[in-house]
Amino acid sequence: MDSLFARPGGLLKFFHQHFKDAVEYSLLGCVSDIMCRQQRAAPPTPCEMAFHKQLAKFFYDQPHSSRRTEELPWHLERSGPYQAS
C-alpha cells in the first residue's frame, strides 16, 4: 500500500500518521495535534496557529474556488488574532 496518495481536489492523504508528522515537522518546524485538539475543542497551540497562518496565506493567494471558500475562513479563525505586519 502506498504511504501517500492524492485525493480528489489535490488533497494529499498519508497512510500513516508518522509520515504526516514528518512532513509537518519538515515544513513547519513542529508537529501539531490538530485532529485530537479539534475533538476536544481545545484552543490551538502556538505551533497549530503557525500551521493555520501558513495555510491561510496559501489559500488567500489562490484564485477563487470552492476549496478556497471552504478552507480560508477555517484557517483564518484557527490562526489566532490578526496582526498586521
UniProtKB/TrEMBL annotation:
It comes from the Eukaryota. This is Uncharacterized protein.
